[in-house]
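hiii so my PI (J.) wants the whole complex modelled not just the main chain, which honestly fair. so below is everything: three entries, each one labled with what it is. i double checked the lines twice but i was tired so who knows lol
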Amino acid sequence: MDLIDFARGPALQWSLALFIFGIAWRLIGVLLLHRKVDHSLPRHQDTTMGGVRLIFSRMWPKPEFRQSNAVHYALSYTFHIGLFIVIFLFRPHMLFIRDLTGLSWPTLPSGFVYVIGAMTLATLVAMLVRRMSHPVLKMISNFDDYFSWAVTALPVATGLLAVSHLGARYETLLALHILSVCLLLVWFPFGKLMHATLFVISRGTTGALFERKGAST
Amino acid sequence: MRDKTVLELLQARGVSRRGFLKFCATTASLLALPPSAAAAIAETLGKTRRPSVIWLSFQECTGCTESLTRAHLPTIESLIFDAISLDYHHTLQAASGSAAEAAREEAMKAAWGQYVLVVDGSIPLGEQGYYSAIAGVSNLEMLKETAAGAAAIINMGTCAAYGGIPQANPNPTGAVPVSAIIKDKPIVNVPGCPPIPVVMTSVVAHYLTFGAVPELDHLGRPKSFYGDTIHDRCYRRPFYDQGKFATSFDDEGARNGWCLYQLGCKGPTTYNACATVKWNDGTSFPIQSGHGCIGCSEPNFWDKGSFYQPLSAGIWGDRQATLGTAAVAGAAVGAVAAASTRIRQQHASEEK
Amino acid sequence: MSEIVDNNPLDLTGTRISVQKPEVRYDVQGEMPDEERVRIAMRSFVKDFGAHSAIYMESCIHCGMCAEACHYYVQTGDPKYTPIWKLELFKQAYKREAGPFAFVYRLFDLKSAVTAQQLQQWQELIYDSCTMCGRCTMICPMGIDIAALVSQARHAMFEAGLVPHELWAVAERAEREGSPLGATASTFADRCEWMADEHEVEVPVDKERADVLVTISSIEIMKYPNTIADFAKVLNHMGVDWTFRTDGYEATNFGLLSGNAAWQKDMSMKMIKAAIACGAKTLILPECGHAYGALRWQGANLYGKPLPFEVLHISEYLARGIKEGKIRLRQWPESVTFHDPCQVSRRGGATAAPREVMRALGVKLTEMGEPGLNWCCGGGGGVVTIHRADELRYKTFELKMKQVEATKAEHLVSSCSNCRQTFDDGQAHFQWDKTMESLLEIVAANLINT
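here's the output for the full assembly
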């Protein structure tokens, strides 16, 4: 079995299994912790809607906070949108997900996605530089932050290398690209990348709790 | 006949000197050699005596031979092929039975150490090699015997080069490629199912001219033919870059000749000259006729998932069972973790 | 510990109310070995860890944006004031003890244990430099309620005996005397009598039965006693059957602020019992921020079932009275900006009520940004009592002054007596020309009595 067959075959299958295993472990492990009944008289009853509202509303920063975190917001939006485009709007990637889930959707021209990919990688580098130099980020960062950065940046970098045939033969680069995705999948549930699922629960929780109180969200 | 030069043999078959030179020039360019090499090839082939070639067919389907001999119109490649052939080729030769085997032994003796051995088909190792035998001699034995006196070996087709379809999972005969058995001879792989005829003749021409095999890639293939992927040289590549894909074999995209990636084309990971040299005298190649590349010139192409699954799809085993088990196991471990935390919390509260 | 109990005369003369500045600080309580202190802190932090807090602990992505929402970081630029960093030590406890991967952490000893020295250093971050104002919760892209987690961390700190001297002393006095500031039941009764005389208003105390039980903050009793009269004026104007009760008047909850859950419950239960005793249908909380969070949102949970009466902040009660036509007001067309007390408004949800009251007064209101999101006064969460935190608090107060100044409003109004003493103290320190005014006071002064 050559590298690409290993990557497309057992590596993907097992990393996906670990991905699902880890997500289930972490989510269930948290969600099954005890919950106290809140006996206070709710100000608003429809707490579910409050949760849903915050899940969406927190995607956009409050005017109050925009200026002080402008750089951060700019980098984060660019990076997240870039990553979204690269992951979901590149045909081969969509076909990977279609193969897994049966879902399909329109995609963007591959050439355009390459440009976005390069931009995403540049943004990632900028974010790393910022993390290593900003006093707050430097202080609060730990292994997870840097490792998660690396496993996010690697697939983007190897993907760009693969499409530009730089450094090795295409099938080798493609295999490395897939293997880097496997690494990301395996790390995902155990590090902060998990926020891609947790954000819904975490925002939803605060949204629901605060809606109950009518507090600011 | 053995005393005649290649040129003389060609001329006897009605090939003009002009046509011959054109062939030499084409060969030089296909081999990515400088233009001056064309003259060298012409000169060498002009005065070289017809080389002795022994062709062994093992576990194969005769498709490679068909590809080289059954061109719709006789091309100069097929004539060259014809001209250099063939002291032994059990499909093509007139002799049969022990006479045929005698011809092989005679040819080996006559040109010991100088003949070129062409192999198509893989060699079965299962059951002491007796899944396939010719005149009571197993393929394995015959290969070892014949290779011993060969100057070089050319593996025609994916079976001889990489094991091919006989070796595909579950490989009941224990098929292996030539390179798994013969370690001490220069080997050129000309994979493909079947390979492109001109690649074969070009390799022979190169060998005759320079006395050595052409530059090979890490899979033993001549770089000049197998240096680029089908995808990189595909005339449909612009559609890939534009994001225009055929999504079924009879949709508008297919009729417009858009990229076949989504229909499973393996062009991006397949190294061959189909997209540039094409087939049947440059008429067409699979993608041009509307079907994706199946990657036939790559090792294990038969076992790389469906021909109709996009390259980016995984090659899954029992996916649903694995992933389902993973989900259940993860949930169980999570539940145990939560329960154990709750118990610890209970203890902590009671402690004080 | 006894040193703190014995030797802490109240400082009732200053602009803010606390104990007098201690000559020797006792910021560590109880005698126990360091390891024990750490063990207790860590165990206590995770003891009550439920799904909500765990989700928050799991979700942080270390983006650091909360720093920009925190007045301590904004004013000092010191990264240690980054809100989520204040929980760093406790995050480790969570991961080892309660997280989904806890047994893996313990098995491989992945998170190094916290030391007593670290915990002591963290005292400043958990108490001196956090008012639990919850602006960080507003900015967090993951929606993590950091303020709630700090409150949980305070429980751990209290159990480990790591509370700042003054806050511990004040809380202990409150538990022992029923008031953190010496406003004992008899003092309160005296003051009610005094105010009734002074303002010629009837102040019902200890009625057997009443529809409405009014509670008050010790800060008001000791420093802004007119509030007693203001309550009386408004409630009498409304013609309500109401009373103060000496068995349940104190609304501040230093059990909550210091992190002692048992004391917190004791303090809340006094009011709950008093309300039940007099058959009140409504319990009114005074202009006090944390009192609102403590009783309105946590009271029923300490009681163990829904409260048999409703709990309203005075601003909510005023808004309702106005809406029902029970309060008739003169117009007071002044230029005003309103300071939202964090625990009432941002975290308590009573943001609309004071604005409805101000609309009825006809004021010209200029908001300090989005309602419910303004800067904290810097004195909440018990911070105002801590002497060593004064310098830092004044720094953060500059931010608040700037925000108030930017509105160009003439009057600064709020409805929290803790904010009020913080404003008074800051005003004195900076010789600022703005005095915070109480919403209740303004309403009481503008009643149309027929």
